[in-house]
Write a structure and sequence with these properties.
This protein is mainly α. It has 26 helices and no strands.
Length: 506
């Protein structure tokens, strides 16, 4: 149940019982009995179309199913039979990569069978991948309200990205966050603090401090507690001296909680990965490395036999290598981190060509001052990136161009980042500082701080966290950031809406 869009790429057989189709088709769209010959001919068309789909003949089945659906006799089918045809046609369209048409077919299928959770979830996924984030959010709201107990069965990243991609001021975004909160969604026990912070922030913006206080009770992760502490909008609701809002304590408690959860759910790679990330946050890099190595060894021991795979969500295994590289880098072993990322960049990501680790490898090469290697690495990145992914790619392209003296390439990458600043305000600030444009970075930061939507991430970027010594390619960026955060105009803008503190976590 609830396979992701990629999991639907194999067409399943949904052949209707011949007798049921014949009975349903014996009535025309006008409600009058159809001629027996017409009914029989239409019955055969339906059966043949479904059989073609059941035999994985997507190219052949697609026009046959389209003809069946377009035929006036389709409206005379029983709703259950209409659903079979529409659902099959949806999967065929997915197989052919025709996602907008698949979305429209899935939408019709949900109208025919509104009590089918799988179809509603699929419609949400198809809406998101076709850029209809509002539609994706609306479907998820309906799902959360009808089947809250099934939310943990969904691809959690789909829920997170749907919220992330919705416009900050979208009523659908607020409604979706409320629906998820009321459904007690907690990402299979790992918690959803980033979502509850976003919900509380929106409730504050709408003047509902009482509701925000309730939402904040579920905010427990260190990064989100930092955002609560540093944003003046929450000052009346946050006791910054209490243990409840102590960031370092929260980071330690998260390590302990995830250690227990990892034992309770040994087949969850997502939980194991979050545990490793929690160890990295508190600086237990040796232990994080050991945990990653152990999980990778379990996978290697199982080999290619999917039946003996140690985790249910094996598609996430590439992130073990990503976390392993971070640990090695922080332990002062950057060349080993490069070797790990080179291997990871050649692996698949959730069953698709890898993009994330290719970009992350490019970033590591930039940090090492190896701009040529960075450029060659990200040249492998294809299309179909998210807005955030495109920004990350442009950041590597800018860095690589700067390190190789390619002014035109650097300007082109920066132009893209400027134009798409809404996708990541922090990346724009970083790119401007890398280009030596401190005044423009200051103006941009002041504007971002004035906007409730961009303020939390920009304030967080300004905080003091634990860091390892910079690699050669990071020195200029860190010095430029320090200079920016020492400017009076920037400090005055920060003071109006928040504060800068020091936190003993990475």
């Amino acid at each position: 149940m609830f396979a992701g869009i990629r999991g639907l790429l194999v067409v399943i057989a949904l052949v209707a019982p011949v007798g049921d189709v014949a009975v349903a088709a014996s009535t025309s769209a006008t409600g009058r009995p159809a001629p027996q010959g017409t009914a029989l001919a239409y019955e055969q068309k339906v059966r043949r179309a479904l059989e073609l789909a059941g035999n994985n003949g997507s190219v052949i089945a697609d026009p046959a199913l389209s003809a069946v659906i377009a035929d006036p006799s389709f409206n005379g089918l029983a709703s259950s039979q209409q659903y079979v045809v529409l659902a099959t046609a949806t999967l065929v369209a997915i197989n052919l990569g025709q996602f907008p048409r698949a979305r429209d077919l899935s939408k019709r299928a949900t109208l025919v069978d509104p009590e089918n959770p799988d179809e509603l979830y699929q419609l949400s996924q198809l809406s998101r991948v076709t850029g209809d984030t509002e539609g994706a959010g609306t479907s998820l709201i309906q799902f959360s309200e009808r089947w809250p107990e099934l939310l943990d069965n969904l691809e959690q990243v789909h829920i997170q990205q749907t919220v992330q991609f919705l416009d900050h001021d979208s009523p659908t975004r607020l409604a979706l966050l409320k629906a998820l909160f009321d459904a007690n969604w907690d990402r299979n026990g790992a918690g959803a603090s980033p979502m509850w912070f976003d919900l509380a922030a929106l409730q504050i913006e709408h003047g509902d401090n009482a509701a925000a206080a309730v939402s904040m009770k579920r905010v427990t992760t260190p990064a989100e507690l930092v955002k609560l502490r540093i944003d003046r909008r929450f000052d009346s609701l946050v006791d910054r001296d209490s243990w409840r809002f102590n960031v370092e304590n929260a980071a330690k408690q998260r390590v302990e909680a995830l250690a227990v959860l990892t034992q309770a759910k040994p087949r969850s790679l997502s939980i194991r990965s979050e545990y490793i990330d929690a160890l990295l946050t508190v600086g237990l890099h040796d232990e994080a490395l050991a945990q990653a190595d152990a999980a990778i060894a379990e996978i290697a021991e199982a080999g290619s036999d999917s039946d003996s795979a140690p985790f249910d969500d094996m598609r996430l295994q590439v992130w073990l290598h990503d976390s392993r590289a971070i640990a090695l880098r922080r332990l002062g072993r950057p060349e080993e981190a490069v070797a790990v990322m080179e291997r990871a960049s050649g692996m698949s990501e959730s069953g698709a060509p890898n993009i994330s680790q290719v970009i992350n490898l490019g970033q590591l090469y930039c940090a090492l001052g190896r701009g040529g290697d960075a450029a060659a690495t990200v040249a492998r990145v294809g299309k179909n990136l998210t807005g955030y992914g495109q920004m990350a790619l442009a950041m590597v392209q800018q860095c690589a161009a700067l390190q190789s003296g390619d002014r035109a390439g650097s300007d082109a990458a920066l132009a893209y980042i400027r134009e798409h600043r809404k996708d990541s305000p922090v990346m724009l600030l970083t790119a401007l500082l890398e280009a030596g444009m401190e005044d423009e970075a200051a103006d941009a930061m002041i504007a971002f701080l004035a906007s409730p939507g961009s303020r939390p991430d920009v304030l967080e970027w300004a905080q003091g966290f634990r860091q390892t010594p910079p690699l050669v390619g990071q020195v200029r960026g860190r010095n430029s950031r320090d200079a920016l955060l020492a400017r009076k105009d920037v400090l005055d803008a920060v003071a109006k809406v928040g504060r800068i503190e020091q936190f003993a976590i990475f």
